[in-house]
Design a protein that fits this description.
The complex is a heterodimer of chains A (262) and B (321). Chain A is mostly helical and 262 residues long. Helix content of chain A is 77%, strand content 0%. Chain A has helices at 2-16, 19-41, 46-79, 83-86, 93-125, 132-156, 161-176, 178-182, 194-210, 220-225, 233-257. The relative contact order of chain A is 0.14. With 321 residues, chain B is an alpha/beta fold. Chain B has 2 domains: 7-246, P-loop containing nucleotide triphosphate hydrolases (Rossmann fold, 3-Layer(aba) Sandwich), CATH 3.40.50; 252-305. Chain B is 31% helix and 26% strand. Chain B has a 6-stranded mixed beta sheet, sandwiched between helices. Chain B has a 4-stranded antiparallel beta sheet with strand order 2-1-4-5, covered by helices on one side. A 4-stranded antiparallel beta sheet of chain B has the order 12-13-11-14, covered by helices on one side. The radius of gyration of chain B is 22 Å and the shape is globular. Classes of the chains: A mainly alpha (262), B alpha/beta (321). The interface between A and B is medium-sized, with 24 and 33 residues. The structure holds adenosine-5'-diphosphate and magnesium ion. Residues 67-68, 106, 183 of chain B line the site of magnesium ion (MG).
């Protein structure tokens, strides 16, 4: 366990000391501030608009940064050959991977918290109510990050940062539409064969089954209309995300343990 | 304690498959027609060796001979295609054995964002050591490798020689019984090389076993008990370096300026030949000779071993293959 934490801490420290990371977070917060100011100046329903736009920005920036950081971190260790000095130490390869993962998560926790605090500060300035549902929404954004980071790590355990970034991004987009894909039905035009479309729909269902259902983590509509989430929703979504991440990490560890590092 | 070998390699082999298909896990089971379109590289072709506790062992070979590949197999970074090896009497993946080993990779690169103490503390954290032990060892090691003046500098700002030295400190953080160094002197200037040589010498005196690779004779000859010469993935010769360079000890040629003839006579027993400024000295006496020569006011111009060069052996073995 200690080895995992040592790796995680080092990963965290490396990201925090990286100027690119710091400027990305600043940029995200800046974007947030500007957009909030604009929506606050719009004529009506400013609070609803602020919630909608604010959550969109927090979740998008978090996911993009997560893909960026998650897809490059393991590869960087290999490319820079720092991994050569770590794996020969008395540490299991999976411990290294889990340490990297927890490092990414702690970095993302900082990023999501900073953005959420900036968002809450805007509400406070306008004397608007942030509310419980907003807090839950922010938490669920972080759970989405937990899932996306695990995917990024899975892909980067066997491919290059560019490829794993693209793959993660692809799965991320599919995941956001997973609920729609899962129930997709296609109706043939009179002159088309229904069979081919059925096969396409079945494929979409399969894709939706493998991809994580990220629509679970978007509760913007509840937040905007200030309605309570269903009982147990947050817990259920959190557990589902955690389970998905664990599965990704197990697969990643298996792939990683078979690799040659040359 | 009976001394059982600290390192054994038996028939260790590595074949790389390159190209897209070669990356497939089940590659070796594919029919040969398919395998035929993939390049294979026999990097290491069945190496057998033993290294005894306390030995300083030089693993010599020209570039591309398979030194790094062999060392990476020993360190668990690459899986052998065939054969086996033991470290401290345990199989390669044994974690208890790995806790007693130190390793410096070839042309190492380290976390640039860390300062020396943080760096060593990080590596120490991967071993079962207390915080206190880690700190104390880190401080002592930084002092030993001459980096105590650079404590406030992140590794990003280190010179090549400093990186190599902190790399060695990293390899020693767990007080290892076996230290494996891959080309520890490559890319360093003569002074840097000497510093590393002195460090290895010191490890030897502390009773540690050192296994290191090099392609340069001068780096190994004064400090190695035994060497193995690797050419194209095969061990061609093993033994003490003197017996390998068949011509035996031809002595060392030393050019000393500024010595009056009468003092030159007092330079010790090792001198086998003297012609003006040129002396030929028995290898084992060189240090004493140099010290004496400096003491009486001489100025050392050059020190050259009188031997067949390692390069000659590399070429000869490569041609024989
Ligand atoms: N990842 C790899 N894929 C294919 N061939 C490799 C790989 N790594 C090394 N080789 C080949 O294996 C041989 C041995 O390389 P190496 O062990 O690095 O030699 P050395 O360390 O003695 O210079 C070389 O011919 C090299 O080209
Ligand atoms: Mg090499």
């Amino acid at each position: 366990m200690r080895q995992i934490l040592v790796i995680a801490l080092n990963t965290f420290r490396e990201a925090i000391r990286n100027r690119i990371f710091a400027s990305l977070v600043l940029f995200a917060v800046g974007m947030l501030a500007v957009t909030m100011a604009i929506s606050a100046a719009s004529l009506h329903e400013e609070v609803r608009l602020m919630k909608d736009v604010g959550l969109f920005l927090v979740s998008t920036f978090s996911a993009v940064l997560c893909i960026f950081v998650g897809a490059s971190l393991v590869y960087k260790e290999i490319e820079r050959k720092t991994i050569y000095t770590i794996l020969p130490k008395p540490i299991h390869r999976w411990q290294f991977l889990v340490g990297k993962y927890l490092g990414v998560l702690s970095v993302m926790a900082v990023q999501t918290s900073v953005m959420s605090l900036a968002l809450a500060a805007q509400f406070w300035l306008l004397e608007a109510d942030f509310g419980l549902v907003m807090l839950q929404a922010v938490w669920l954004i972080f759970v989405e990050v937990v899932v996306v980071a695990a995917l990024a790590l899975l892909f980067s355990s066997f491919s290059t940062p560019f490829l794993s970034g693209m793959l993660t991004f692809g799965v991320f987009v599919i995941g956001r539409f997973a609920d729609r894909l899962a129930t997709l039905t296609l109706k043939a035009a009179p002159d088309q064969s229904q069979e081919a479309l059925d096969r396409a729909a079945a494929f979409a269902h399969g894709v939706a089954w493998v991809a994580p259902d990220l629509s679970l983590y978007n509760v913007t509509s509840y937040a905007v209309y200030d309605t309570h989430l269903p009982e147990g929703f947050v817990l259920h979504a959190t557990l589902a995300g955690g389970l998905y991440a664990v599965i990704c990490l197990v697969v990643a560890s298996i792939l990683f343990s078979r690799r040659d590092f040359m | 304690m009976t001394a059982s070998p600290i390192l054994t390699l038996s028939d260790l082999e590595k074949t790389f498959t390159t190209g897209f298909l070669g990356a497939l896990p089940g590659f070796r089971r594919l029919p040969w027609q398919v395998r035929g379109i993939v390049q294979t590289v026999h990097a290491v072709r069945g190496i057998s060796l033993t290294v005894e506790p306390g030995e300083t062992f030089g693993f010599l070979g020209p570039n591309g001979a398979g030194k790094t590949t062999t060392i990476k197999m020993l360190m668990g970074l690459i899986r052998p295609s065939k054969g086996s090896a033991t470290l401290l009497g345990k199989p390669l993946n044994d974690r208890a054995a790995r806790a007693r080993i130190g390793y410096l990779p070839e042309q190492p690169y380290f976390y640039e964002h860390l300062k020396p103490m943080e760096f060593l503390d990080f590596y120490g954290g991967l071993f079962p050591m207390t915080v206190r032990e880690r700190r104390d060892r880190a401080r002592a090691l930084l002092d030993r490798v001459g980096l105590s003046h650079a404590l406030d500098r992140p590794i990003r700002k280190f010179s090549k020689g400093m990186v190599q030295r902190i790399g060695i400190a990293q390899a020693l953080i767990n007080a290892p019984e076996l230290v494996v160094l891959d080309e520890p002197m490559s890319g360093l200037d003569p002074l840097g090389r000497k510093e590393i040589r002195d460090l290895i010498f010191e490890l030897k005196h502390q009773g540690r076993t050192v296994f290191f690779s090099s392609h340069i004779l001068q780096d190994v000859e004064q400090i190695c008990d035994r060497v193995a010469i690797l050419v194209r993935g095969e061990v061609k010769r093993t033994g003490p370096i003197n017996t390998l360079l068949e011509d035996g000890d031809g002595g060392v040629e030393v050019l000393v300026a500024g010595l009056p003839a009468e003092t030159a006579a007092r330079l010790g027993s090792g001198v086998s030949l003297r012609e003006g400024h040129r002396y030929v000295v028995a290898s084992v006496e060189v240090d004493a000779f140099l010290r004496a020569a400096l003491e009486v006011g001489g100025s050392i111009r050059s020190v050259t071993p009188q031997r067949r060069s390692l390069e000659a052996i590399f070429v000869e073995e490569a041609q024989r293959a």
